[in-house]
Design brief:
By secondary structure, the chain is an alpha/beta fold. It has 16 helices and 15 strands. Helices cover 34% and strands 16% of the residues. It has a seven-stranded mixed beta sheet.
Amino acid sequence: MKILLISPCPDDNQRHESMAIPQLTLPLIAGLTPQEHEIKIVEEVHNEVIDFDQEVDVVGISIMTQTAIRGYEIANEFKKRGKVVVFGGIHATVMPKEAILFGDAVVIGEAENGLWEQVLHDIESHSLKEFYKLDKYPELNHYVAPRRDLVQKVAGRFRLAPIETGRGCPYKCDFCTVPSSFGSKQRHKTVDCIIEDIESIEEKVLFFLDDNITINKKFARELFERMIPLKKYWVGQASANIVNDKELMKLARKSGCKGLLIGFESMTETGLNKYRKTFGSFEQNVQAIKTLQNNGIMTMASLVFGLDEDDKTVFDTAYNFIQKAKPAFLQACALTPYPGTAVFEKMKLENRILTDDWRQFDAKKVIISPKSMTADELQDGYSNIKDRVYSYPSILSRSLPNIFSGFGETALYFSLNIGARKWHKSGLTAKIFRNNADMPVDFDVTKYVKPVKKMVLA
C-alpha cells in the first residue's frame, strides 16, 4: 500500500526560521511500517504542501489539540476522494470519539507492540475497526529505527535530530497531558538501543524529547557516560534538582549537554508548594540556574501564568526571578486547559474556558477566565512580561552568563530569544480568544469543521 503520514499545522504556525523542534512520532510510525509498503511524510509546519490528488491508499494524521481542526480539514479532503484515514496523536488519544467523526479509525495511545501493523493488516483485509488501543503501555526495550530520512531536521538555523530515551512522567501536573497519554511511571528504552539510535544520526545536535531525562539518575549516568565518545551536542528537559548531583551534572556537560528546559511552572510560594517540581524557595531556584551556568549548561526556564493561585503579583515575581537568575530563555506559557487534564475538567465544569476553538489551544494565548484575577488582567500581565523579557536590553543583559563556550552557545542563545521576540511581536497572542456571544462553548467541533459523509469500505 501507499501510505501518507501527515503532521498538520494551522496557517499561523507554519514557519521556517523559528526554533521549532522536529517531531519524532511520524518517523517512528514509519519505522514500524513493514517494508513492503511505500511511505511518505508531510509536515505542514515547514510549509510543505499536501497534494490531495496523489495516489495513496492510507492517510495517517497525527494531531495535537492545536492542530486537530486542521487535521480534520485534511481528513475531509481525503475522505472526499475515498481514502482510508487513520488518526493518532495526543488529541486523538484523549478525544477519540471526536476524531472518529472525521476518520475511519483512531489509534489511542502508543502504536508499538504490533498495533500499527495490525491496523495496516485490517485495512488490507477490509476488517478495519474504529478504535485500536493496547491493553497496557508498551515496553520500549526493542530498537525501532525512526525514518528520519523522511522528514526535515531543521529548527531555526540549526540542523538537529529528535530522540527519546523513554516516556511517561511521575509529576502529574494537573495541566499536563503526559500522564494521561503516556502514564505516570517513566518507561525507558535500553541504553544500548539509545546509543544505537544516536550512532545512526548524521546530525551533530540532538534534542531529547523526554519530559525529564535525569529523573532516573542511575540510567542518566550510564547514558551520559556512553555518549561522551560519540561527540554529539544536545539539549533536553530535566528538573532543577540535577544540581544536587554534581557528578551527574558534570557528566551531562561532558556528554554534550548545551542546555536544559526546566519546568519551574511558578515562582509564587503557593505554586512552589503545589507542584514540587523544583526547589522550595525562590532563592534556591535562582541559585540552581546559576549553578548550571557555572557548569556550562544553559537553562531554558518555563513558567505558566493563569494558575488558580496566581493574582496580579505573579508577573512581577516572575520578572524578578528572570532578572536575578538570568536564564538563557523564558518559555512563557498561558495556562491552557488541554483535554485529558484535570484542569480541563475543572474549568469546563466551572464554565471558565472562553473558547472551544482547538486552534487556540497552544499555551501561547489567553483562553480562560482565571480564578484570582480577570481575563484582561491575565492578558495584560502576560503580554507585559514578554515585552520586558524579550526586549533587546533584557536579551543582552542575560547573554553574558549564557554564552560561555563560544559560537554554538551564542547562536543558540540569540536564536531562542530573537525567535521568541519575533513571535511575540507578530501580535498573534495580543488579545484574549473567546467565542462570539452567539457561539456556545460546548466543545462541539463540528461548528468549526463539518465531517464529510463516511464512505462504506468495500
